[in-house]
## 1
Amino acid sequence: MSTTALAQPNTGRITNIRGSGIEGAYVTHNRSDQHLHTDRYGYYTITNLNIGDTLRVSSLGFESVSRVVRVIPDDLNNSLAQRYISLNEVIIAPESDPLKFFADINLLTNPTTNSQELLRKVPGLVIGQHAGGGKAEQIFLRGFDIDHGTDIALSVNGMPVNMVSHAHGQGYADLHWLTPETVEHLDFGKGPYSADHGDFTTAGYVDFKLKDRLDQSKLSLELGQFETQRILGMFSVLDKQDHSAWVSTEFISTDGAFEAPQDFKRVNLMGRYAGTLENKDKIAFTGTYFTSSWDASGQIPQRSVDDGSITRFGAIDSTEGGTTGRTNVQVEYTKFIDENRFLKSQAYYSQYDFELYSNFTFFLEDSINGDQIRQKENRQIFGATTEYNQELNFGETQALLQIGGGFRNDISLDNELSYTANRQTTLDTVQLGDVHQTSSFAYASMDFRFGKWLINPAVRYDYFIFNYYDKLAPTYFTQRADQGIVSPKLNFRYNASNSLQVYLNTGKGFHSNDTRVIVQERGREILPAAYGADLGTVWKPLTNVVVNAALWYLFLEQEFVYVGDAGIVEPSGRTERTGLDFSIRYQPLKWLYIDGDVNYTFARAVDEAEDQNYIPLAPDLTITGGMSVIAPNGFYGGLRLRHINDRPANEDNSIVAIGYTVVDLNAGYRWKNLELGIKIQNLLDTEWNETQFATESRLRNEPEPVEEIHFTPGTPFFATGVLTYNF
């Protein structure tokens, strides 16, 4: 007669062969419908075990294992060996979000060496660069021109990347300090449905999870066209079962394809320690240093290319460019109270500097010196978060309770907008002041799991305090405003089977306004809300095919266009977006992966006339996809396509930003410790515009200004060779 552990929960841990916990691994029980998944540290808890029961453990990218329970309590720990990525291992269960596997599959099958390229791993997200490679990229998602981060929250291990009340634009999110090879996992969500994500989470969020330990150390050298080089060193300095540490160094330089060389240079240093203490608590320290400088040709007017004054890669003002840097220190601690409860906390500090020179209108305002501007700031960020997690059992219903809170304090000194000449002379200072902004938040979330259902009610509260000292004012006075916002959420998942899930997400989110505008407007339009809903399904029609389709809606109380180049925020009124997302992942052969993402959006301003209600630069159709090969003989490669449709550049669609289709290629071969590869951007040498804006400008000899498309040309055919030594 078997012995059963009816009331006694049993805890196990799933790790890789190096001892790091595997997040999201599935544990299935042969006698029940339990489909458990491991937490971030690889732990899981199971009840109602009998001697002789079989547990099967699987995870994307690892060999599956099965084990028979011999004694109770038993050691339920398992170590999984890495293997080919297999869609057979994807189990659709209500306990975890299978959509996140789509980003993980992209990350594993299509490696990248560019930090901002990591964002393209999120299905439906498109980026574009328009300032020489040193400026944060422009982001498009779900019918938003997000600019540099206004409607998407970016973070690394929970530490925010977005900058509030930034000198160039609200939500500015420069991810260039992150070395892509250090990222192990992408946590993302579309829409305002997650209680643990607040400001800027309207279109969605992306949180990059760093590796606790390296699989191996490496040295890598990349050389390519346009005087391009990248040198990467990643070194495992501690590799024990309970303690690990690594450091990463990266240097990048290039002149780009432009006639005026970019002289772009970037240095990244990163280091991380992760350890398990005697009481099984987890602790981790991360430190990063980043500095970058560049020149830029800026956005050029179409008429100058058409009349032959300049080429597509020429410049009207070649003195644009800038410098920036960021240093981060972060500590994370997880306290395990017992097998059902733990507390995870983090604290972080960032020091940040930014100086950008741009010229968008040329001689519109100043016919003699030109319209070059300088945007500059020095910033410090302090923050901390804590989250309490507890597993609860109500008979047939299991639940996960999460209660969290935290704060963030930004001190941006000498936040400046000035007119300059040739980067040397300050002609006029338009804005100069100190921003002190503090936000605090609390949230509660409960996952109820019963049968095939998961129901997640949640609520979040955010409170902001804005202070601004205007150094151009005739007398000293600190302007102040404050406001709070409540954001409820309610999400449902129903698993019809192990191969079909239907979900409904609903929730309220928000994006904050710029401190300088808030105090000038005496507290109006501080935290406009966003209301959203997603109805979707995740389906495995075959063992090697995963499909996601979702119909969604998002309403914004107020959409802002932050014209940082003029020091103003333009309210655009209420907006509505309705869209359809479709994603597919297909593995016809063990070594061949095919993927595709199609995203359609209908976006309009609510309060404008029908022919005046277009949302500038909001894409209505984006398509990304391709195929990847990871062969057993050491060969690997990938072919990637990205497409963005023509889109309105102004409110009446009289000016159109032309769409594009670009194909990229990467290929390589691994032999023992050596790896030789090639990367080609724009394989077909397509003529395309990476970013486009409807801008009114005047050239030096023009009597009147002209409003038309100004653009940054997309990269032409661009080949890079890569040599890597692994040890």
## 2
Amino acid sequence: MGEFIAKRSLLIIIATLALTVGIGFFIPRVGVKSDILSFLPPSDPAVKEFKKIGEVFGGNSIAMVIIQSDSVFSRGVLERIKSLEDAYRDIEGVGFTQSLISMIDIKKVEDGIEVCPLIGEDIPSDRKALDSLRNYILSREMYKGVIVSDDGKYTAIIIRILEGYDRDKIALEIRRKTEKLRNGLKVYYTGIPLIMTFVNEIILSDLKKLFPLTVILLIIILGAGFRRPAGIILPLSGVLIAVVWSIGLMGVFKKDFSIVSNIMPVLLLAVGSAYGIHVINRFYEDHDVAKTISHIGFPVLLAALTTMVGFFSFLTSNLIPIREFGFFTGLGVLVACATALFFIPAVLNLTHRKGEVKEKSLHLSRKVMSPLSNAIVSIEKYIIIIMTVLFILTLAFSPTIERSVNTLHYFKPNSPIRVSIKVAEDHFGGSTPIMLDIKGDMTNPEVLNTLVYIEKYLNSLSKARHPQSIADLLMETNYNLNGIYAIPETREKVQNLYFFLEGQEALTMMITPEKDEALLQANDASKEMDETRAMVDSINCFISNLKNNEDWTRKILEWDLRRLGINAQIPAELKTVKIPAETLSHAILEYLNSEDVAADLTKQEKKMVVLMALRGDTAGIVRLGGIDGKYLLRDIRTLMDDIKTEYRINYLYDKFIHKKLSENEERIIKGDLYYLSLEHPPRVVPNDVKIIHTGLPKIYVELDKKLLLSLFKSMGVSIILVFLMLLWQLRSVTGGLISLIPIIFTVVLNFGIMEIFRIPLDEATMLISSLAIGMGIDYVIHFTSRLKLELKKKGKLEAAIRETIETTGMAIIINAVSVAAGFLALLGAELIPLRRFGILVAGTMIVAALSAITILPALILRIRPGYIKNSVKEV
């Protein structure tokens, strides 16, 4: 191969540059896509369920624009909110919006109830009306903390994006219109669609900033290591070609950068330069292309193959961006290897001056590395002991590493998007939706009470905020109509409530037109992945045990009381509450004396009706002459039921509540007591109800599981394939196993460091282990390859190890420092996962290099594997 390169140098250079230019034309086709859903395949059950929600209920992606003002209840601010919401509605792909202007309002009026927008088109102008509006809205649980903050200084406009539309494009349009219309108002953007637009912008910004920074750092390192222009230009040009090929091939396959693959250009700069460094370092010893390729070609190829194994092992991942990252970065490594073995030698062959001497380049290496080589040969036993102690200590820490796929952790604490997320959490319970799809007859009280039961449970969780469903609107309507904040006990009464809600836009995001499926939604207020996992597991467990609901009426009361700070133990069985006869008789008589009711009855007959009603003599009431007895009986029965229910509720309320509650709190507790007071409490969860838990928290947990699975799969594949390659190189099982020890030590040490410094396992840091195996093993390969050559020359193992450390050892150090410097450039990234990734990989590469020139030779000296003995015998 070396002779071929020497004869065809110019052709190789021209062909390489021509192909690079051709592939480079596809680079502009590469965009940025950081959508969290893109990590999981469309066939994944969690993704399918989430997308189905979007198709049925007018979108599953929720953007939230939060407006801050000294008081949002001023005409100017409310007019601005209306202008913004109108502008959002005009964006194609926006399915539903909700704000103080448009949110549904249900209130009691003189002749019944009124269902209309909360503010609507007519925004009050005088201060008194605005203050009245403020007091009304902040007194309602339906609005406070949902659409407006408790202090009235923050309000949210919620925008649902329809399924099938480009979320990034719509989110950017929302931001554009907001900036145009906000007129000096302070705004915060949150919700996954809006957050991802900022992530995309940061990714592009980081690429533009970090790529040239990495190039500068490489130039400095290469200049310090080689002290000649060719030692800088050639490794850099070779790896730049690899970068162009990788990004260009992404354009060919129509792939975009993600939160993972955006590190690829910087990574290739850092990693790909290694092959050129080793070729140039050897060339300055041999001064002949053919000899250099014969000496270094195989170890460089093998090193590239092991690095490719590290990247291609990600093809086993269940996460799409990680698979794409592994594939295109692996191709980039292949191109970097090809440029190191063909392009760089071809350039050296045409430009190198024959009169240069190699001793000059080796002098510094021997001066620096000689003390280290002498120390390793002398104290190999202590090196092994120190390694073993460190290995055990760090292994003990590794199992407790945190895992995190929380978007909040992408950003610096003071970044605008982190501030926006915190505002949403502090004032609105977050912007990440928990969703439950409930299939069943939504006119059936049992089904609707199932929604109530689930909502009450979610409200009892510390990290689930503001659960909402069609049940809330029905209970609100029932309260304003009948004075009870609960689901009525009959289907007819439920259908009557629906009559008042017909035509309201809010229903489209809560229930299907056929009333056979409903969406229950809450906000996730978790800040850590452990909290999200615990909450999702808790919800799943609750749903799976939902059939065991005999005491659900008692549970909801206990949950609501506990939420209000009232510790009351509700007995499993309550004694029947007897209503005093005088209470019933007074109510019946008052009804009979009301206008146009039983007008044909005399005073004495009315008293008889009261007595018959109390005795249960319904037949006697029906036989009364001069009136419609059946009609009167029906009304009296309804009246008596209502009186009994009201009396029981008030009795139980006085029994359990011993402190003053607000009007809203009182109606919630009395609503719970309504269920408890019924002689036959309603059932929940009929057999024909199906409940599916979905939403972003569940997707985060699914992603978290697959992240861990991907880590183990890619690590396993990397270790097996790397061992097979070492076996191919060394022809020794023992030698292969010994060669793996330094890199396994490096991986375990990395996990220990992550735990000590509380660095979580996320989309970026999960890549490190496989990369450490694939990239770090390069140093082992170069060391063992040179050691075999030196054994054949010198015959003695100690002398061969010294020579290897003093020559190839220096190249390994230069390579590790250049790789580390390249990755340290990621410390300038805006996204925190990239900064963690950069510092951890930099540290891992240094540890891997030091392990290769300290731990490996120490193990070889103590164990003397088969390939060492065979090499010595050959001499």
